[in-house]
Specification:
By secondary structure, this protein is mostly helical. It has one domain. Helix content is about 70%, strand content about 5%. It is built from 4 helices and 2 strands. The chain has a two-stranded antiparallel sheet. Helix 1 (about 5-25) packs antiparallel against helix 2 (about 40-60), helix 1 (about 5-25) packs parallel to helix 3 and helix 3 runs antiparallel to helix 4 (about 95-120). The protein is flat, with a radius of gyration of 18 Å.
Length: about 130
């Protein structure tokens, strides 16, 4: 497999694993370091996963176009996960919070469209 495609597929896999951290780690689990220092496990998994994705894109050498496309794929997966899994109609979530998330999801959808229009409209070469 070419380097460009492997970076894109690796980014997609890492992003799906990061989304699984949001979905499957319970928010009630904590890490107790002692001395009154308690850290939420879900927050730690999300931060570490985001750090891994960022470092993957920084240190995996490829052309600039492949890196942009890989980041676009990661962004697309994260945006689609927000649309599919956020409880927009759950009445236990505050209405203002649901509205704010819905607004930024719509703005994120605009970014989603702009990213993919760039790749479908231009003749982008993934070769180094």
């Amino acid at each position: 497999m070419r380097t460009g495609l492997s970076k894109i597929f690796g980014s997609a896999i890492l992003t799906v694993l990061w989304i699984c951290g949001f979905l499957f780690v319970k928010g009630t689990l904590v890490i107790d370091f002692g001395a009154g220092l308690i850290f939420n496990l879900k927050f730690a998994v999300i931060l570490i996963g985001l750090l891994v994705i960022v470092l993957y894109h920084i240190f995996y050498r490829s052309s600039a176009e492949v890196t942009k496309l890989s980041l676009g794929v990661a962004y697309s997966i994260a945006w689609l996960a927000l649309i599919f899994f956020y409880p927009f109609k759950d009445l236990s979530v505050d209405e203002g919070t649901r509205g704010a998330v819905a607004f930024f999801a719509l703005v994120g959808g605009l970014g989603f469209c702009l990213i993919w229009i760039r790749y479908f409209a231009d003749e982008v070469s993934l070769e180094a």
